[in-house]
Amino acid sequence: MSKEQKQQTVADDVSLLEGIKRGNSDTLKILYKQFYPMALRFVTHNSGSEDDAKDIFQEAVIALYDRIGQQKLDLKCQLKTFIYSICRNLWLKRLGKKDRYSLNIEDFEDSIPLVNEIEWMEERDKQFFMMEAAMKRLGEPCQSILKDFYIYNMSMQDISDKFGYTSTDNAKTQKYKCLQRLKKLFFN
C-alpha cells in the first residue's frame, strides 16, 4: 500500500467514525457495503451460513457503535482490521458454544488475543513502510529489477531482455547485488 493509499484509508476511516458519532445513516450503509463481504466470507468458510454472517456483522457494528459512544475506541489499526477482528472473535466464540470448533475457544483467545493480533498487524504495516522507503532509496535499475522479479513474476530471461543484459547469468548477478543493497538499506 502506497503512502497515498494509506493516507486515503486513514481519511476514509476517520470519515466513517465521524459519521457514526453524528448518527449519519449513510455511514451505516457504507460500513455494510465495504466490510460485510469480509465477514460473510470468513463465517461461511468456517462452518457458518449467510444468516450467521449477518448476525455476527450486526453484533460487530453494535460493538463498534458502543465503543464510539462510550469514547472507548482507541483505533490503532485500519477500521477494516478492527471490524474483522471483532467478527472473527465473535464467530469463534459462537462456534465454541455450538461445539463446531475443535479448540477450546478460551485457550485459543489466550494464545492469540486481539490486542496482539492488532500489534502484529501494526508491526507488519511498519515493516512494509520501511521496505517501501528502502526501495525508494535503492534507485534504478535495482528497484525495477526487484519489482519485475518479485512482484510481477517476470522470468530472468525477460528481465535480461528488458534491461539489455548479455545473459541471464548477468541479470541474476545484478538482481543478487540489488537484493543485497536493499537488505542493507532495510536493516540499517
What do you see in this structure?
It is a single chain. With 188 residues, the protein is mainly alpha-helical. It has two domains: 3-126, no CATH class; 139-187. It is 79% helix and 0% strand. The protein is built from nine helices and no strands. The protein has helices at 3-22, 25-44, 50-69, 79-97, 105-111, 114-138, 142-151, 156-163, 168-187. The longest helix is centred in the C-terminal third of the chain and has 25 residues, at 114-138. It is elongated and about 60 Å long. The two termini are 22 Å apart. The model is unreliable at 100-113 (pLDDT under 50).
Properties at a glance:
188 residues, mainly alpha, 2 domains, 0% strand
Helix percentage range: over 70%
Describe the main β-sheet briefly: none
Count of helical stretches: 9
Any idea what the radius of gyration is?
Answer: 22 Å
Shape: elongated
| Strand residues, percent | under 5%
What is the assembly state of the chains in this entry? single chain
Structure classification:
mainly alpha
Record field, number of beta strands: 0
Average the pLDDT over all residues and give the rounded result.
Answer: 78
Low-pLDDT ranges = 100-113
Number of domains: 2
Set out the fold topology.
Elements: H1 3-22, H2 25-44, H3 50-69, H4 79-97, H5 105-111, H6 114-138, H7 142-151, H8 156-163, H9 168-187
